[in-house]
Design a protein that fits this description.
- With 469 residues, this protein is an alpha+beta fold.
- The protein is globular.
- It has twelve helices and 23 strands.
Length: 469
Amino acid sequence: MVLTRFAWPYGGHHVFLSGSFTRWREHSMTLVEGSSTVFQAICDLEPGYHQYKFLVDGIWHHDEQLPYVTDDYGAVNNIIYVRDLELVPPILLPVASIPGMDVDNDVFQHVASFQGAIRREPITRISDADIGVSRLQLSLLLSRYTAYELLPESGKIFALDVKVPVEQAFHIMYEEGLSVVPLWDDFKGQFSGMLTTSDFISILTKLHTNGSILTSEELEMHSISAWKEGKLQITSKSEGPERPFRRPMIQASPHDSLKDVALRILQNGISTVPIIHSSMQDGSCPQLLHVACLSGILKYICRHFRHSPGSVSLLQQPIYAISLGTWVTGIGRGNGRQLAMLRSNAPLSSALTSLMEAQISSIPIVDDNGSLLDVYSRSDITALAKGGVYAHIRLDQTSMLQALQLGYKAKDVINGPRRCQMCLRSDSLHEVMERLSDPVVRRLIVVEAGSKRVEGVITLRDIFNFLLR
């Protein structure tokens, strides 16, 4: 048992403590000597998680400055993890964050030059127990709400028929800025899969190797279903004579919890999940309501805690101090993976190989000093669909600089390069989550203030792997 002090610092005449450890019976609190507003109670608690709240002059309250959760009945309670005291020395963070930082932002250089003068308040490193409490709060939040929360009030939803030619499909994806799109099979009367930029990378790789299954001319005529079937046959031959295995389409119902939707994305190694409403009773066609992604779920979390980020202590931690993201050796704690980077003169084939083999979504492009020049991501590959550029280049002879310039040209960006989304290692988890909740921001490149040397990468998947593991 551990003696634990509870305090209500907001005044009142009659204040009581009630919690899971009192079987929700009211326990009287007394004024702290010399104070007219702070009430306290000392309880002997077993180690572990406990919920509690305060009854102040006949009205139930919770302390919004402390961790809290909402139970299955909608009641909001504070939460505490009882443990032995741990003394952890504070750490001093190096520099404040710069909102909206990008690679060609002059303000970034100006502010970074004063990094010796800009300091945040010292912050105490969070303990594993507090991390556990914060994760529990976020897990309960995501378990309580359903995918209906993700449905926009209005907007467009794209789907492609499996009979559409592959070349046309990727041109549509490029024009609409889509990295993944659901596929509709009219013959079966159902959604049958997803077309992604990874498919385009696989097609380009096959086109530029001996024994390719499709020529560039065939690519203009072959339907999506033909490509998918050919891909399936090749996979089955490479894995043995067994019958080809067709993985069922990963989808979600609007009634599924946000936590289930996020876990479905993480566990299946995909970027999105279509939210489909199916009615087995009337036999009607399934309805595609939305294509859910991690940024939408993250936006919901950020909106929930926007006015009370202090209620989740984990959100105030600097990103380099927690096991989050992929980092250069010796800087952040990270996930243990090696950070992939490429020089601007590296061949495009190296980038595509790294994207597919390492199962990552992007690669920072750096100069000889390791400073960030740009980022090449899987979605950039669709730019090669414009004008059939893919049929006229050699992947092993096209440099990353040339590939990026092709992207600028396709997007009619004259002066390039694009504005890269960056952050500093000292930025808090809450700040990083706010930035990543923007659907157009899929990762943040962690750079050193001033030099812009790449120090790490934080992705949406990193955030959810950390929060829900």
